[in-house]
Amino acid sequence: MSKSIEALTYKPDPIDIVYDFPEIRFKKTGLIYQRSITEKQKVFHACGDKFRAVQAMIGAGKSAMATIESFRHSWYYRSNFGFIIRKSIPQANISAIPDLMDVCPRWMIISWNKTDKCLELLNQYGYEFLKNGGASMRKGEQYDWLQELGGTSQIIFTSFEGTTDALEKWASSNLGWYFIDQAEQANEDIYVKLNERMRRMPSARQAWFIANFSRDIPQKTGWLWRFFSQSSPEHRENHWYTDDMPTDANKANLPPDYKATLKQTMHPEDYARLVSGDKSQMRMSKSVFPELSHDVHVLQAHKEPPAHWHRGIGLDPGLSNPTAFVEVAFSPNGDVYAYSEYEEKNRAVSDEALLLRNIITPQHIFYFMDGIDGLKRNKVTMTSLQAEYIAHGIPFQLAPREVLPGVQRIKEYLKFDEKRIHPFTGKQGAPRLLISPACVKLIEALLMYRFDERKTHTVLQNEPEKFRKYKDHLVDALRFILSGATLPLGANQAMPAYSAAGASRATEGPITQLQYDSQGQLDFSYVMRAAKAHVPSQPKQPTPSRPRQTSWSRGITANA
Fold first, then answer.
1. Domain-embedded: residue 541
2. What is the pLDDT of residue 102?
3. 516 and 411 in one domain?
4. Helix or strand or coil: residue 164?
5. Tens-digit pLDDT profile for residues 233-260
């Protein structure tokens, strides 16, 4: 990698007396950042929290702000090292790298390796060395001294595209900072993996995340809002968040007709979400459940379902993917209330069954699990997953596996009925499906449940009737219980009892309800006997035979 130091080839005095880092001039507009900085950008730079997230309109100047923050950290610390991260390297090539080169003072650049996407910059310690006589040294000796003094810092452009295992490429990194651009395309796994590498000393060990408002994911459900926003119940210490950076705040750096052009060419929903911020025009264009609303479907506070409501559990089993279940209560009037959720990885069936047995009550009469995973057999014991749960006392039935009918079932229960009486408030006007605010992950999963994307190069093609398989386990669990259970349609219709018909194991008879002893404890002996019952083989009835006709006998018959 070639070394070419341009430091001090020109320098009136590049150190800004207010911000104490080099003067940043936008080459495209000629504006100096420190003199044109907005109030919102000042707040971002002055924030002392370790993690900062900005989710705002396009054209608001947030990427330039974060890029300059990368320069500040590279300037302040000896031998600092950080990442600027996009979803893919091609995205970095067309946006992140040109954006950085547009504002980077040329005299700070020590070298740029296009292959490794590594930019080496002069920091304040190298600057002082060159200013005090180091600039007169031979180039090779000069660079050796810079390395010895920690006088340079490095910025690597990298991507998070691929599987979680692919992120191991960062395993040997020793970061002082990182910056994720377009962070709405990332997830918390990337955030956690990068934080494992933030151990460079001395450095501020900070990170910042820049995101647009997504077209398809609601603002108040994404991981950025959940971890960073002070309004979120999951807000984490040392995390700062703002969504208050309008496009107009950066007018000085935008063409005068920028907003007008976007308004003329963008869909009104996209313009509202990405430019104007007009919430009355926003909706989730790719969401499967755009009708889902916090105000309509989510209770203001958690409530336990009434004691006389029947209850059920929908289960989506997993191992490397989490096992998820949703507890649902059914009112005699046909209301459905999802009031409890569970999602955990790497748990054995016996552990999950023990957890379920501890929450089951006499009102639990519906048990439905994945209709395909439930039939998968253990290669050692040759028992199905459904049979294992039954053996542990949880009589799961197999739910219909088809996704589209199950999704349609959820949508039916989300429909708002102006004449329906709300079961908890008594007011007129309610959907049939209500959700407890305690089911945070279920609400997020429903809001993020999306259709698969159509390929951009295919023009004459219908939208795919498929759904994105990402964090959909709780949605699947809800789909199984709503598809499997026979729900009442009116107050006069009796709630059907659970039946084991269709189970993969023979039983002593239909299980109409779970048995309880005199102390009110669950008695699983009946279910256990049913699960372990011998399956008698049925004698095969002989098929009556008829005389075989040979070719010569058929000929005789025909001639006769």
1. no
2. 82
3. yes
4. coil
5. 888 999 999 887 777 777 777 778 888 8
Give the single-character DSSP code of 104: S
Of 385, 362, 289, 409, residue with least CA distance to 513: 362
Rounded CA-CA distance 52/177 in Å is 12
Q: Residue 182 pLDDT more than 50?
A: yes
Strand partners of residue 240: 52
d(CA 259, CA 270): 13
Domain of residue 88 covers 33-254
- Within 8 A by CB and 6+ apart from 434, the residues are 297, 298, 299, 335, 336, 337, 338, 423, 424
Packing angle between helix 440-448 and helix 473-484, nearest 10 degrees? Answer: 90
Three-state secondary structure call for residue 407 = helix
249 and 351 housed in the same domain: no
pLDDT band at 457 (very low <50, low <70, confident <90, very high): very low
Residues 394 and 487 in one domain: yes
pLDDT digits (tens, 9 = 90+) for 471-522: 789 999 999 999 888 544 343 334 344 333 333 333 334 444 455 555 545 5
SS3 category, 273: helix
- Hey, what are 525's tokens? 């002996």
Task: Specify the amino acid at residue 343.
Answer: E
Instruction: Specify whether 313 is located in the same domain as 225.
Output: no
Q: What is the domain-level CATH number for residue 247? A: 3.40.50.300
